[in-house]
Amino acid sequence: MALEKRAYIYEKLRQYKPAIADYTILIEKKPNDPELYRRRGINYRLIEDYAKAAADFHKVLELNPNDRDASMRLNYAESKLHPLPTIPPQPIPASAGRAAAARAETSRTAGARGQSSPTPTSSATP
Fold first, then answer.
1. The domain containing residue 68 runs over which residues?
2. What pLDDT is attached to residue 84?
3. d(CA 43, CA 38)
4. What pTM was computed for the model?
């Protein structure tokens, strides 16, 4: 119990590596305690070791499959390991900007006249 308190104190003092070492010793003694894996995983995440954090959160879910907290933490760690690709911004052609401005102006003036949009006129009469 004293080692668990020390690990927690290290964690609160932001001394993550000593906390991880203590949680590792505790896990060796109590390998079926999901909370120890969670705490160690949190500390791994705080030092940005996302692979080890993910492994610990996987273990929490193995021991407790319905643990939503561990599931969310695992998703976060995995998102850091496999980030989504970014799409570089594409320049907008000048003609597209003029067309959008024209649509906005048409919409603005139609609203000022009380119309929702311009209506086509028909030359055919009944």
1. 2-81
2. 76
3. 9
4. 0.66
37 located within any domain: yes
The one-letter code for the residue type at 15 is: Q
Instruction: Please state, in angstroms and as integers, the Cα–Cα distance from residue 59 to each residue in 65, 94, 119, following that order.
Output: 9, 54, 64
Q: Which residues contact 32 (CB under 8 A, 6 or more apart)?
A: 63
CATH number at 48 reads: 1.25.40.10
Answer yes or no: are the C-beta atoms of 5 and 26 closer than 8 Å: no
Report CA torsion sign: 119, 123, 124, 125. Answer: positive
More confident residue, 29 or 103: 29
Q: What is the pLDDT of residue 126?
A: 47
Confidence of residue 83 (pLDDT cuts 50, 70, 90): confident
**Which residue in 29, 61, 30 sits closest to 41, CA to CA?**
61
